[in-house]
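Kindly inspect the following:
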Amino acid sequence: MSVIEVENLSKEFRVFSRREGVGGAFRDLFQREYRTLKAVDEISFSVEKGELLGYIGPNGAGKSTSIKMLTGILKPTGGKMEVLGYHPFRDRKAYTKHIGVVFGQRTQLWWDIAVIESFSLLSRIYEIPKDEYKERLGKLTEILDLKELLHTPVRKLSLGQRLRCDLASSLIHDPKVLFLDEPTIGLDAVAKDSMRSFLRTINRDFGVTIILTTHDLKEIEELCRRIIVIDHGHIIYDGDLKNIRKLPGMCKQVSVEFVAAAPLEELSSKFTTGVKFTQESERSVVVDYDPEKISTVELVKNVLTGYEIADLKITEPDIEEIVMKIYRDGVA
């Protein structure tokens, strides 16, 4: 069952083109020039209930603009979108009661009051019954480890602590969909690992549908089964994260350490296409190969036959390398 449906969604901005120099600035006073910037260009996708979707792309690709349209902050220029049966912009007053949003560099907590007071205010804004609020707060306090933070003013929290509290505030009204825009930006490795653990728990235990945008591809790899890659306003990949490694041109790698000197010339003569051998040391060879042209089993069988092997390791393509290739070349 789809909770998000997007069809040919577009967003254009009218941007002022400033002329150079004093003369240009003077002319701009009387006659301004504008250009149209297409931030999102007819994208279409759907998201199923309970899915944790990675939505990635370089800076300026259209990620945040898409999220702002899906949360009702921006009005689309064209196309259709529906989340939980609502049009996000047109129905935003009723719609926002059913979604949660976390923007990594912004907070919805009140800066000078204790965290618990911010939660209490939000419970009134969302008109949450007292019993439901207490039960929900108890669960979130346990999952996000907030007990020691509840009576601390927001301004005294570290970035990691504040983001945990922001995540709790976005879930206090029991939303069905959670939008996370760079939720771990600026966090250290330990805090990021904790945040990933929290998101897995929330997705699993509460059944919340999550759309996650981030530049941290390790985060995507650990959390998401499916990713959408957007660039220059266009979706250039939408599919299973596992299948992204099977795209044409994505090479795998085998590292082989021989007991004796590496027989580089003999090995190279066994293969004609799709395989590249690189000698790393006297006894070690790295083999890059295209799984579309030769299977891993066939390659390893040929390498092992007739030689004594001390060690062998098969490596999948690195997720960052794959995504960068998609940005550069698109998907064949």
In short: DSSP finds eleven helices and 13 strands in the chain. The CA atoms of residues 134 and 324 lie 46 Å apart. Residues 251-316 form a domain with the Alpha-Beta Plaits fold (CATH 3.30.70.100). The chain has two domains: 2-245, 251-316.
